[in-house]
Every structure is written in structure tokens, then in C-alpha cells.
Write a structure and sequence with these properties.
Blueprint: H1 7-19, H2 27-45, H3 49-53, E1 56-63, E2 70-71, H4 73-81, E3 87-99, E4 102-113, E5 122-135, E6 139-149
Parallel strand pairs: 1-6
Antiparallel strand pairs: 1-2, 3-4, 4-5, 5-6
Amino acid sequence: MRIAFSGGALALVVGLAACGQARPLSEADKAAIRAVSDSFEARVRAGNDSGVAQLYTENAVFMPPNEGIVEGRAAIRAQWEAQPADVEIELTPVDVDGRGDLAYVRGTYVVSIVGSRGGPSVVDRGKYLEIRRREGGREWLIAVDIFNSDQPATAPPPPAAPRRTTRP
């Protein structure tokens, strides 16, 4: 038995097979993703914690260094609210890529926390990786966010010396 495909049927089969392959990000997608990074910087500088949280998906995962995983937009907002008020941040996206409605951003950061009462500022440099998801057909929100410092880890304080007891 011979099966014959018409040109239209063959095009339909090929088209359906191609639907499983997501298209690469366009330059417009990459620009929109970078715009979210710019908005993130501006909101952090302004102390707009709820605005920062709105750049994450509802079920986002935030993985700050030396802390547990923070899950969900509400918990991420609380995490940002706990940060010092005078923060300067500079994000430098190094690589933005993805397919379809998923993308990643790999980059570096510099964070400066202004010292209180005229004290010195604390500066940290490091790297980050974000997974972005397009929601609503246009908005590239952060679904997973992890970052860590390039600074060497600080040693824990030495244990307290045992106290001598005097015997009567």
C-alpha cells in the first residue's frame, strides 16, 4: 500500500514538527530583557522594594549568597525590604540569550552600600545569572536569580577561649 502526501499535507506535517522548536530571541527581545535590568537598577537605587519585586514572576526563586532560598514574589519583596536603604547598584549584562519565552542573562554587578553616620561605604563585586520568562506575551520577568561575590570569603571569628575556673 502506498501513502501519498499532497504538498499541503506535507507542509502541515513539517510545520507541526517545527512547532516544537522555539524560535531564537530577536534583538527586540534582548533589548526588552536589558530594559528590565535597567529598571531593576533604578528601582533598587530608589528603594522601591515592591517595584523590584514586580520584576520577578509570582513563583520566582531568589538565591542570595550565604542565605537560604527565597521563594515567591512576596518573600522576595520582604528580602529586598530588609536591605540597607542607601544602595547603589550597577548591572552589566554580559550574555543574553534564549529561545521562545525563556531566556537567561549572565552578567557582573557592583554594589555599594553607603556607610551610616559618615562611615565608609561597603563595595561588593560579583557575578549573577538570571533565568527570565516572558509573561503576558511581552514582559520578561525574572524567574530564577542567583548571584555571588568575587570577594574572598571572610574567616569566621576564632572560638572563645575556655574560661578558667578557680577552685576554692
